[in-house]
């Protein structure tokens, strides 16, 4: 799972016993050598879907941008400058090295985006970060993105089909989530990272309550499940053109 440039088991253990912010500061120099980085295959599929569906955008926002895997995609899709936001200074430093030009990097909590970012973007994306937010935090998260978008702006992110309970992967992620809950019950500071706290139905409801209209597009490169439904979809949450603020 990890390349030779990835972290050692000891480094991962130290990271896991830290806060989310400190943990990613520690992991940042080797993050791209881990399976946690969003795969290029996913980024390419999302870029292709957005380009076909929407064309080009003005300015773009990568929420929880990490080391900047999604920023190159945004630069190709957006006519104007793009912004990466992350709470980890270490991850932003890596993003700055990867994208020395054409990108603004802002250290901020995704739950409290700075007012200077409000009503600024035509496209917002996020990859692989939603497990860091508890269900009760989704209204603040989605409300912040809604404020950051201009009227008619789009918040886009990939969503996977539910994992059947008969799959070994279901048991793997369930075991991981259980281990994290035990860790957070006995150790401080907490490290919030869960794989099963972002189900499509409640997420869609919270997006609509935040003021978005929601639709999905299949991501064809990932194929279909046995029942004919897509393995992955691109969720498009749109801020209606008539709404401001």
If you had to describe this structure to a student in words, what would you say it looks like?
The chain has 245 residues and is α/β, with parallel strands linked by helices. It has two domains: 1-37, no CATH class; 38-162 and 199-238, 3-Layer(aba) Sandwich (Rossmann fold). It is built from eight helices and seven strands; from the N terminus they run αααβαβαββαβααββ. The protein has helices at residues 9-16, 20-27, 40-54, 71-77, 89-98, 138-148, 168-186, 200-209, and strands at 60-63, 82-86, 103-107, 121-125, 149-160, 213-218, 232-238. Strands 3-2-1-4-5-7-6 form a seven-stranded mixed β-sheet, sandwiched between helices. It is globular, with a radius of gyration of 18 Å. The model has no long low-confidence stretch (mean pLDDT 92). It is an enzyme of class 2 (transferase). InterPro entries: Methyltransf_25, SAM-dependent_MTases_sf. It holds the Pfam family Methyltransf_25.
Give average pLDDT, whole number.
Answer: 92
Strand arrangement within the widest β-sheet reads 3-2-1-4-5-7-6
Q: Span between N and C termini?
A: 43 Å
Query: Which class do the helix and strand fractions yield?
Result: alpha/beta
Shape summary: globular
Q: What order do the helices and strands follow?
A: HHHEHEHEEHEHHEE
**pLDDT under 50 segments (min length 5)?**
none
Give the C-alpha Rg. Answer: 18 Å
Q: How many DSSP helices?
A: 8
How many discrete structural domains? 2
GO molecular function: methyltransferase activity
Keywords: Methyltransferase, S-adenosyl-L-methionine, Transferase
Protein name: Class I SAM-dependent methyltransferase
EC number: 2.1.-.-
